[in-house]
UniProtKB/TrEMBL annotation:
GO cellular component assignments: cytoplasm
Organism: Leptospira perolatii
Record's protein name: Ribosomal RNA small subunit methyltransferase I
Underlying gene: rsmI
NCBIfam families: 16S rRNA (cytidine(1402)-2'-O)-methyltransferase
PROSITE patterns, A to Z: RSMI
Amino acid sequence: MSQVSKSAVQQGSAYIVSTPIGNLGDITIRALEILKNVDVVYCENSSHSRRLFQTYEIQTKSRTLYKDFSERPFEKIIEELQSGGTLALVSDAGTPGVSDPGSQLVRTLRENRVPVIPIPGPSALTALLSVSGWQVQPCLFLGFLSEKKGKKRNQLLEWSSFQGVIAIFESVHRMRDTLSAIREIFPSAEILIGRELTKIHEEILLVLPNTPLETLKFAEKGEFAVLIRLGGKKMLNGCDGEADTLDGEGKTYDH
């Protein structure tokens, strides 16, 4: 295993570090090296990140990102970096700034000409795309839709003529309503649902256009990623991409 020393971490730089979305084994070697060697790790919630730090013996001091900022956000962070300090930013899971907090900090760092370095890693979006079997160019990522049913429906209607794959994230409490809106607006679309990706109770479910939504069986807990296939775009070799099909009751793949 390669090692990164304090001197190899660039002084005055901020590292945006992707962390596991479930399975802690998905952390990258580079991410661990950065987290162990920066001066401080800013977390979406430092208590939530404690399990990751304990598992990999990361002893770097950590702070919850938004806890102490008010009228002049991130001033302390900018001062630390301009004095030669180094930091990493992590969200609770996945990549900061991708439907997670972080973009405001990154924007402020760039405005102050601070080097911002990405440390890529796990992503629910790319994980689900990789097992879809579909041609995923183009792919439109909408993140989390509105909690309000009417606004959510309008957000989807805006893309009713889109030809490709639409990707969204959703919480368990709104999943059934979101599926109903998708079926109403895109009645001929295939839908691929990923629940608790990379975790012990992971489920991946393909919903065909003729599958009654009321027959779908999945555990109503955890976080969801959803792909909507529109237009039946051909694969590069001229064949339709196919994920595993299933009967009207739905089929899940548990790990």
